[in-house]
C-alpha cells in the first residue's frame, strides 16, 4: 500500500515527538500527533480516480507547506500488505522510513499515477506469472493478464473506483477464484439459483434457534456487503430471476442505496466505502443478466478455460486435446450449449486415470457429458482413443 505524506516534530518542552500525516492509495488520511493513536479518516463518497488521488496528495502538500517544523520533503513510502490493516504500525513504519529518507520524493502527479497505473506500468508478463496469490484455503492462484494488468489488481482497482465487474466464461475457468484471490475473506458471496427470491438477497425474519415463536431479522448478502463496505460476488448471476435482479439497480447506481421496507430500524441501507459488485456467469445459461444490470456494469471480462494449465497440473494430454477441440468448436460456432469439460472435471479425470487408467477416465468424463451429447462426444473422442462410453454397471 502506497502512502504519500511527511513527518514533523511536536515539542512538549521535555523532548520532541515525531508525528506524521499521510494519505494512502485507498483514500485514507492518516494523522498522528504528539504520540497519540493514529487517526484514520476517509470520506464515504471516496472512490478511486486519478483526479481524486491527485487532490489527496495536493492536500498533503498544502499541509506540509503550512508547517515550519517538518523534518524533510513529502515522500512516497510503500507499506507491505501484512501491515496494511494495522494503522498504528503503518504510521510507525512511515515515520521510520521517512526520517531515514527511504522511499522517494513525490509529487501529487506521481502519486496519482502510481495509484492508478496504466498497463505499461505493471510488471512484464514473465514477472506477473511468478506472483502467485495464496487463497484462504491454502491453494495458490496464478493471476492472468487483462490488457497487460494482473487480474487481481484490476479487480482491486475497480472495487476502489466503485466500478462493477462481470466475469463471463465456462464452468471451472476461474471466474469465482479470481475475486477470492483479490479480496480473500473480505469477499461476500451470493450464490444464485433458479428459484431464488428477494429474501435471499436482502434478508428476512428467521426463527431464533431454540426459541419457539421468536424471530430475528438476518441481513442478506447484499445488505451485509453494503453496510460492512465489502466487495460482493454474485456467483452464477445469470440464474437470478429478472425480478430479483431489480434489487441491484439502486445499489449499483451512484446513490449506492437499497430500500428494504420490512427491515427493522433503518430501511434505507447505504453502502460504505469498499462496497462494489462483481458478477460471474456462464454464457448461454439461466435467465441472463437483465439490460438494466448490464447497463450498470463497467467492465465485462471474458474468462476462458485455461486448458494449457490442465497439462501442467497432470491431466493426460489426450483428454486436454479433446477438451481443446470442443472449446474451439464452441468459439467457432458460438454454440454455448455444447458441453466442454471444465478444468475441475479434467482434474477429476486425471485423478481417476491415476487409479483406473486412461480408458476408464475417458468413460468417467463421458458420463459427465449431457446424455443428448454423449454420442457426439464419444465420436469426437474416438479420434484420440478408443471411443469411450459412459460408465455403466452391467450383470457379469
Q: Into which percentage range does the β-strand content fall? A: 15-25%
**Low-pLDDT residue spans:** 120-126
| Arrangement of strands in the largest sheet | 4-3-2-1-5-6
State the major sheet: 6 strands, antiparallel
Give the termini separation: 66 Å
Care to count the β-strands? 19
User: Structural class from helices and strands?
Assistant: alpha+beta
Give the averaged pLDDT, no decimals. Answer: 87
Number of helices: 16
What's the assembly state of these chains? single chain
Q: What does this molecule look like?
A:
The protein has 396 residues and is α+β, with helices and mostly antiparallel strands. It has helices spanning 50-66, 87-99, 108-115, 125-128, 151-160, 177-183, 198-202, 221-228, 242-245, 249-252, 291-295, 307-312, 317-333, 343-356, 358-368, 374-381, and strands spanning 2-11, 16-24, 29-32, 39-41, 75-78, 104-105, 133-134, 140-141, 145-146, 149-150, 164-168, 188-191, 203-207, 215-219, 231-235, 257-259, 268-270, 276-281, 297-302. β13 (203-207) and β14 (215-219) form a beta hairpin. α5 crosses α6 (177-183). The longest helix is centred in the first third of the chain and has 17 residues, at 50-66. Residues 120-126 have low confidence and may be disordered. This is AAA family ATPase.
Amino acid at each position: 500500500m502506497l502512502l504519500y505524506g511527511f513527518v514533523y516534530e511536536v515539542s512538549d518542552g521535555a523532548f520532541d515527538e515525531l508525528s506524521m500525516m499521510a494519505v494512502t492509495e485507498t483514500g485514507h488520511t492518516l494523522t498522528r500527533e504528539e504520540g497519540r493513536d493514529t487517526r484514520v479518516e476517509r470520506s464515504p463518497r471516496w472512490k478511486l480516480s486519478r483526479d481524486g488521488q491527485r487532490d489527496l496528495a495536493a492536500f498533503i502538500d498544502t499541509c506540509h507547506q503550512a508547517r515550519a517544523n517538518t523534518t524533510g520533503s513529502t515522500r512516497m513510502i510503500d507499506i507491505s500488505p501484512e501491515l496494511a490493516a494495522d494503522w498504528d504500525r503503518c504510521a510507525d513504519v512511515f515515520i521510520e522510513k521517512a526520517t531515514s529518507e527511504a522511499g522517494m520524493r513525490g509529487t501529487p502527479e506521481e502519486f496519482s499515477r502510481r495509484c492508478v497505473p496504466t498497463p505499461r506500468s505493471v510488471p512484464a508478463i514473465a514477472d506477473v506469472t511468478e506472483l502467485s496469490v495464496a487463497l484462504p484455503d491454502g491453494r495458490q492462484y496464478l493471476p492472468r493478464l487483462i490488457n497487460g494488468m494482473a487480474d487481481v489488481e484490476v479487480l482491486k482497482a475497480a472495487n476502489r473506483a466503485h466500478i462493477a465487474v462481470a466475469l463471463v466464461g465456462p464452468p471451472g475457468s476461474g471466474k469465482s477464484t479470481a475475486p477470492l484471490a483479490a479480496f480473500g475473506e473480505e469477499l461476500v458471496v451470493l450464490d444464485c439459483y433458479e428459484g431464488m427470491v428477494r429474501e435471499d438477497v436482502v434478508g428476512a425474519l428467521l426463527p431464533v434457534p431454540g426459541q419457539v415463536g421468536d424471530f430475528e431479522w438476518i441481513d442478506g448478502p447484499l445488505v451485509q456487503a453494503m453496510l460492512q463496505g465489502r466487495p460482493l460476488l454474485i456467483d452464477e448471476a445469470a440464474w437470478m430471476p429478472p425480478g430479483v435482479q431489480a434489487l441491484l439497480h439502486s445499489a449499483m447506481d451512484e446513490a449506492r442505496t437499497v430500500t428494504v421496507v420490512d427491515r427493522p430500524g433503518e430501511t434505507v441501507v447505504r453502502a460504505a466505502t469498499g462496497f462494489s459488485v462483481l458478477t460471474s456467469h456462464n454464457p448461454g445459461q439461466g435467465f441472463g443478466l437483465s439490460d438494466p444490470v448490464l447497463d450498470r456494469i463497467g467492465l465485462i471480462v471474458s474468462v476462458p478455460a485455461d486448458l494449457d494449465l490442465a497439462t501442467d497440473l497432470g491431466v493426460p494430454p489426450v483428454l486436454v486435446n479433446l477438451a481443446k477441440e470442443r472449446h474451439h468448436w464452441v468459439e467457432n460456432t458460438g454454440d454455448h450449449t455444447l458441453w466442454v469439460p471444465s478444468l475441475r472435471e479434467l482434474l477429476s479425470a486425471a485423478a481417476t486415470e491415476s487409479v483406473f487408467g486412461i480408458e476408464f477416465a475417458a468413460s468417467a468424463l463421458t458420463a459427465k457429458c449431457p446424455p443428448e451429447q454423449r454420442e457426439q462426444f464419444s465420436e469426437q473422442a474416438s479420434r484420440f482413443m478408443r471411443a469411450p462410453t459412459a460408465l455403466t454397471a452391467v450383470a457379469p
